[in-house]
Design brief:
Blueprint: H1 14-32, E1 39-42, H2 53-59, E2 64-68, E3 71-73, E4 77-80, E5 84-88, E6 94-96, E7 100-103, E8 110-114, E9 116-118, E10 121-123, E11 128-129, E12 133-136, E13 141-145, E14 148-149, E15 158-160, E16 168-170
Amino acid sequence: MPGDGTDSPTRTPMRQLEPHFLRAAALSILACSPAWAGEIIVDAGGAGDATTIGAAVAMSQDGDLVLVRPGEYDEDVAVVARSISIVAQHRESVTVNGSFSVQAIALSQRVVLDGLTILGVSDPTVSIQGPALMIDGCDGLVRIQHCELVGAESENGLLFNIGGSGAVVVN
């Protein structure tokens, strides 16, 4: 009978369960965390790893986080064939006077743009405004969150080119 010591259920010692529990807990934390390979700091004043977003993208590897410090960046930025997250350190504190293009993102890759204001200025000397964001040939996920896109091609500053089957999420 249970409780009298004669038919007690078999119990696994806690020491045997501990490694399995710890391994499962670590895997669940890793599954919920972004899989960043490295972090590149962009600071227009020179206090980071790069002074432009384009330079940070050029030195990045698949899975890197590009953290952009507050400021104005006069440049066009191209993300081609790599997983990358480009994130403003503080929302609405980073303005890009130029356009972003995201191209040839494979099914296994993703691009995240977060907290940026992209004005889509192609040539500031003659005030010609182009699209803020161009997406072309992407089979992987392109996620735009907490961004303000201002451009001439459409009301929301986006220009999508045909050639990919990937999802574009804007929120």
